[in-house]
Amino acid sequence: MLIIWSFIIYKAIMCVAVFAVALGIAAYSTWWERKFAGLLQDRYGPKRAGPFGLLQPLADGGKLFFKEEIIPNVSNKFLFILGPSLVMITALMTGAVIPWGRPLHLDNGDLFHLQITDLNIGFLYLLGVVSVGVYGIMIGGWASNNKYALLGAIRASSQMISYEVAMGLAVVALIISSGGSLSLNDIVTAQGDGGVANVCWQPLGFIIFFVCALAETNRAPFDLPECEAELVGGYHTEYSSMKLGLFLFAEYINMFISSAIMAAVYFGGYNMPEWFENLYRGSVSLDTFALIGMVCFVAKIFIFISVFMWIRWTIPRFRYDQLMNLGWKVLIPLSLLNLGITALVQAWRNGLF
Amino acid sequence: MSTLLLNIPVTQYMFYFLSFVAILCGMMVVISKNPIHSILYLILTFFSIAGHYLLLNAQFLAVVHIIVYAGAIMVLFLYVIMMMNLNEKDEPNKKVFLKIAAVGSAGLLLLTLVGSLKGAEKMVAAAPLNTNVGLIKNLGQTLFGEFLFPFEISSILLLAAMVGAIMIGKKDPVK
Question: Does the bond joining A72 to the residue before it have cis omega, within 30 degrees of 0?
C-alpha cells in the first residue's frame, strides 16, 4: 500500500503544480499581451499597478470578481453556468499529458516524472479533449438566449471543427515521421540524444499545425467568433463577472497549452541543441540537467506565446468565407499532401523501395 | 453484506456506476422535452460508454469514440437543433396511430434484444481473453495485417459516401 500512497501523492503534487502553473502563466500572459501590444504600438501598456504594471492581472481578476453577476431570466441557468465551466475544464485537462521535463531523482531512489500521465494514446487524448471543448462555447452561446451569442457560438464551433481536421492530419504525418508512438513523452525523447527536432522533418506540418492552433484557440486573425463589429461580443455577449473571466482566461490557458504542445512535439520540448547540452552535461548532476531542460522548455513556450501575440497585434481579422476557404480548400489538401509525402519518405527510410 | 461489498474489485463498482449513468442518460434522452437537453444526455451516454471501453482496456476505441461521436457527430446534431430552435410549444401534435406504431416497433426491438441476450450468461469464451488487444499497437497490427482488405473496403465506402454527400450538397451551376 505504501507504494500506492506515494504514487498518489506524486500525482497529486504534479496535478496541483500543473494547475497552478497553467493559471499563473495564463494570468501573466494577459499582462504580457498588453505590454507586448504597447511595444508594437509604441506606447507603455499597463504601468500603474505595481512596478512595470506587474500587479495588473490581480487588479483585473479582482475587478471581474467584484462585478455584478447577471444571469438572464429567460436562459437555462444550469446550462448557462455549465458553458464557461466546460471551457475552463477542457482547457486545463489538456495539460495532463504534456511532459514538462526529464524525471527527477528522489532521495529514496524513486523517479519523479514531470508529467501527470504518460498515456500511450496521448495525442488522441489531446484531440479528444479539444473536440469536447467545443461544447462549452456552444452550450454557453445557446443558453444565453441571444441571437448574437448563438451566431458567435456557431461560428466558433464550426471554425474549431473545420480546423480540427487539418490539425489531425498534420498530427498523423508527425507521428509517422517521429517513430509511430502517440505518447508525447516518446515523441519528445525521440528528438533528443542525437535526434533532430521534428520541425526539420515536418516543416509544412508545423505550419499547418500552427495555423490550426491559432484557429482552435480563437486567436486573431481567427477571432471571428468575438468579432465586435458584426456580433456585439460573440458567444460571451450575455456573460458578466467571473463567468466572462473564465471564457477569456480559458483562451489564454489554451494558448499556453498549445504553445507547450508545439514546443514539445515540433521543437524538442525539454531537449536542447547537442552542442549546448555538451557544454555542461558531465559537470552537473542529473537533476540540475533536468531542471535546465525544463527552463529551456519554458523558454520555448514563451517564444511561442509571444509569436501568438505578435500575430494578434499585426494581422487583421479574416472574413468568414476566407476563413472557411483557408480551412477546407487550402489547409486540408496541404496536410493531405504532407501526409502522403511523409508516408512515402518513411517507407523509403524503412527500405520498402 | 459489508464483506460482500468489500470483496468486489474497484473496476466492478465502476462498471455498475457507468452502466447506471449510461442507462439513466439513455432514458433521459427519450424523456426530456427539450431537444437540446436530449442531445446533452446523449453526449453523457457516449461518455459513459467510452468509460466502459476504458474498463475493457480498449483505450484507442474509447478516445476515438469520444472524438468521433461526442466531438463531431453530436456537434452537428447540436447545430441543426440550435438553428431550428425547437421548443416544447413548437412540437407538432402527433397522431395516435403514429404513437402506437412507435411503441410497437420499439417493443419489437426490445424483444429481439432480450431474446438474443437470453442465455448469454452461460456462454463460455471460445479463446482466452487477451486484455491487450485494445491497445493501439496491437489494434493497428491487426487492422493492417489480418483485416487489411475489409479495412480498405470500408474506407472506400466512406470515401464514396463523402463524395456523394458533397455532390448532393453542391449548388447547381448558375444558368
Answer: no
